[in-house]
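--- STAGE predict ---
source: upstream dedup step, 1 unique chain passed
mode: sequence only
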Amino acid sequence: MAAYYERVKRFALVLALVACAKKPASDEAARRAAFDQYRQPNRVVAALGLRRGQRVADVGAGHGYLTFRLADAVGPDGLVVATDIDSEALDALRAHKAKNVVVRKVTPSEPGLEAGSFDLILLSEVDQYLPDRVAFLRKLRSMLAPGGRIAVTNRRGFRPALVAAAEQAGYQIVGEINDLPAHFLLFLQSR
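--- STAGE serialize ---
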């Protein structure tokens, strides 16, 4: 009888461990769903109006929260160049092995993008980290293809500083989405 109770206790322990192992996964899924509800990435990418075959730069891509959505939007004939300063984040991006995503390490003050190449340059929750927003935005101008745009999305509290920097850098706001839960999305073009 003691052996039976010992097996029951071990079985209960295994069940408890399995339940604990599964809980973080469901917690992680719930956390991701809540974050997506907060950030609304599909809505942001749709608002960018990307077309198949376009070239997009995801500046400060991090672990690729928007990168692979951008890659889907431009399709297999398009290209997304994902940049970041963090080697660990770039390794995570490379692990996805997406055929239409190029990953580049850059410095905080150098975009690392080719001149005249990009239909859209996206800065998502990154402009507040730039050492000099105005200088960085000026550099981006030469990297846009004819008719290219810059899109910036960030938390609302960063909007005034970005707008001031964009104006100083010679851009005008040509579009805006400001009904995201806690973010803005601005579209900039050279004056």
